[in-house]
Specification:
The chain has 2 helices and 17 strands. The protein is mainly beta. It has one domain (3-200): Nucleic acid-binding proteins (OB fold (Dihydrolipoamide Acetyltransferase, E2P)). The protein has a 7-stranded antiparallel β-sheet with strand order 11-16-12-13-14-15-17, with no helix packed on it. The protein has a 4-stranded antiparallel β-sheet with strand order 9-8-7-10, with no helix packed on it. A two-stranded antiparallel ribbon has the order 1-2. The two termini are 30 Å apart.
C-alpha cells in the first residue's frame, strides 16, 4: 500500500493524504463472514463512559479467525481486502476441505499463495503458523498467543511484528513492537512475518470531517472550559491549570499515571517499554 497526496485545492486537501489501496484485490466482502454491529458511541445505559465517540460511517464486522484451529490443512489466499474496522488488510483463505475464513493478512502476501497452521515443526515461510518452540530464533512473528489455545492476542495491528529472541526451558522470549521484552510459554502459537499495511500510520487526516467519519468527535481542552466543567477550567486568558498535577474531568490524576493493574503477569516481563521523550 502507498500514500497519495492531492493538489491543495482546499485547506483540507493541503494537509491530508489517503491510502492508494493498490494491494486490495476486491471490494466485495464474503457475505457469510460479515455481520452488522450496533452503534455504542461510548455509552453505557445512555451515560457517556468514553468521551469523544459517536457518529461516523456505518461499518459491518468481518469475522476474523484468531484461533487458527484447522491444523495441518493447507489454505490458499483467495482475496486481499480492506477492513473498515482495522488498519491492517485482511485475507480470505480457502482450505482444502472447502471452508473459507478471514485472517489478518501478513505483509507481502499474494493471491494464490498457500499457508498452513500446525503444531508440528514445518517450513518457516510467510504466513505459516507454528508453536514458538518450532520457529527459528530471530524471526519476526505476529498474531501471538499469551496462553496455548487462546488464539492471537497481541501484535495484531497494521505494520507491527515481534522478534523471537530465545527459547529456553519452557519459555520463549519475545521483543514486542513497544520495546517491551517478555516471555510466554513456548507452546503458544504465532504466525511468521509482519502484519500488512505498514503505511497506515502515515495517513494524515487533514480535516475534522474525515475524523468524524471515523466516529471520533472533537476534543476540547480542559483549560478552555469553565470551572464547573473541568478541574483545569476558569481563569483569565492564558493561565496555567493552577494544579500540581493535571487531572481528568472527574478529578483523577492524568498524564503519566501508571494504569496497569494486572500484577500477576509482572513475572513474565523482563524489561518494560521505554516511554518516548519529548
Amino acid at each position: 500500500m502507498g500514500i497519495r497526496k492531492y493538489n491543495p485545492t482546499t485547506a483540507g486537501r493541503r494537509q491530508s493524504s489517503v491510502q492508494t489501496f493498490d494491494d486490495v484485490t476486491t471490494t466485495t466482502p464474503y457475505k457469510k463472514l460479515v455481520k452488522s454491529q450496533n452503534q455504542i458511541a461510548g455509552r453505557t445505559k445512555g451515560k457517556i463512559t468514553v468521551r469523544h465517540r459517536g457518529g461516523g460511517v456505518k461499518r459491518n464486522i468481518r469475522v476474523i479467525d484468531w484461533k487458527f484451529d484447522k491444523l495441518d490443512i493447507p489454505a490458499t489466499i483467495k482475496t486481499i481486502e480492506y477492513d473498515p474496522n482495522r488498519g491492517a488488510r485482511i485475507a480470505l483463505v480457502s482450505y482444502e476441505d472447502g471452508e473459507k475464513r478471514y485472517i489478518v493478512a501478513p505483509r507481502d502476501i499474494k493471491v494464490g499463495m498457500k499457508i498452513a497452521s500446525s503444531k508440528k515443526k514445518g517450513e518457516p515461510s510467510l504466513g505459516n503458523r507454528y508453536c514458538l518452540k518450532d520457529i527459528p530464533v530471530g524471526m519476526e512473528v505476529y498474531n501471538i498467543e499469551l496462553q496455548p489455545g487462546a488464539g492471537a492476542q497481541i501484535v495484531r495491528s497494521a505494520g507491527t511484528c515481534a522478534v523471537l529472541m530465545a527459547v529456553e526451558g519452557g519459555m520463549a522470549t519475545l521483543k514486542l513492537p513497544s520495546g517491551e521484552v517478555r516471555v510466554v510459554m513456548k507452546e503458544c502459537m504465532a504466525s511468521i512475518g509482519n502484519v500488512s499495511n505498514p503505511d497506515w500510520r502515515l495517513v494524515r487526516w487533514g480535516k475534522a470531517g474525515r475524523t468524524r467519519m471515523r466516529s471520533i468527535k472533537p476534543t476540547v481542552r480542559g483549560k478552555a472550559m469553565n470551572p464547573c466543567d473541568h478541574p483545569h477550567g476558569g481563569g483569565e486568558a492564558r493561565n496555567s491549570i493552577g494544579l500540581t498535577h493535571p487531572k481528568t474531568p472527574t478529578g483523577k490524576h492524568a498524564l503519566g499515571v501508571k494504569t496497569r493493574r494486572n500484577k500477576t503477569t509482572n513475572k513474565f516481563i523482563i524489561s518494560r517499554r521505554k516511554s518516548k521523550k519529548k
